[in-house]
Amino acid sequence: MGLAMTKQATAEELVTLVTEMLGRADRYAAIELLGRHDPQLAAEVYEKLQLDLYWKQKNLPATVAFSQAGIQHSLTAAGKATDDAAARSLRGAAKHLAYNLASFTWPGWNEPGIVITESDLAIGLEAARLNVRLAEELDRPEKARANALWTLGAQQLAAGDHSQAAETFGRAQSHAIRADAPALVQMLEGYVLMSHSLAQPADGNGRFESFVDSLRADGTQEAKEYAEQLSVAMTVFQKPV
Fold this sequence. Notes:
Blueprint: H1 2-5, H2 11-21, H3 27-34, H4 39-56, H5 60-80, H6 84-104, H7 118-137, H8 142-158, H9 162-178, H10 182-199, H11 201-216, H12 221-237
Helix pairs in contact: 2-4, 4-5, 4-6, 5-6, 6-7, 7-8, 8-9, 8-10, 9-10, 10-11, 10-12, 11-12
């Protein structure tokens, strides 16, 4: 229990300890353990756990649980912080966790080994909304705001709210244009077209497919990756319910 009680443990040591605990104790015991440590250190551990649980273990239920716990921890600790820099850092940690949670619960990636439930989708949409709010409150750069709005539009797309998704992707484009990020502008245009196509397949499918073909023909690796991302997502969302 020495490591569990000391504030001198490293983030990596705590990640290892918590991972070991998950095999023999409930998740709340691990959350309680992290609550005994420095708030900033605990926030760092939550993020490392989030990534390990998703990418290495493909354990979405645990990813969601620890992401939510980490967000709550970071926001609560930020509210109690007496130092403005510490409070801002903790809110930034909450934002990062929220962005990842919104992304990890989005079915459009078609990530192997990940099964997303209706509950996960609802959680992801709320995380996306939080991410956008924190991007604004923390006055993040234009590109970061564009990416935040992308996650919200992506979750709205997954919820079947095609018109709202198209509007959100359009807002994201405005930020990407101000950020002078042409590749991101193109990618977001693809999602606008996808939203219209899913809403009105007869009118929008041809435009979307032509756009993806133009991205593939662009020649740059980034454009090809965006084309593949858009194609995979469309395949997911066109599946019959």
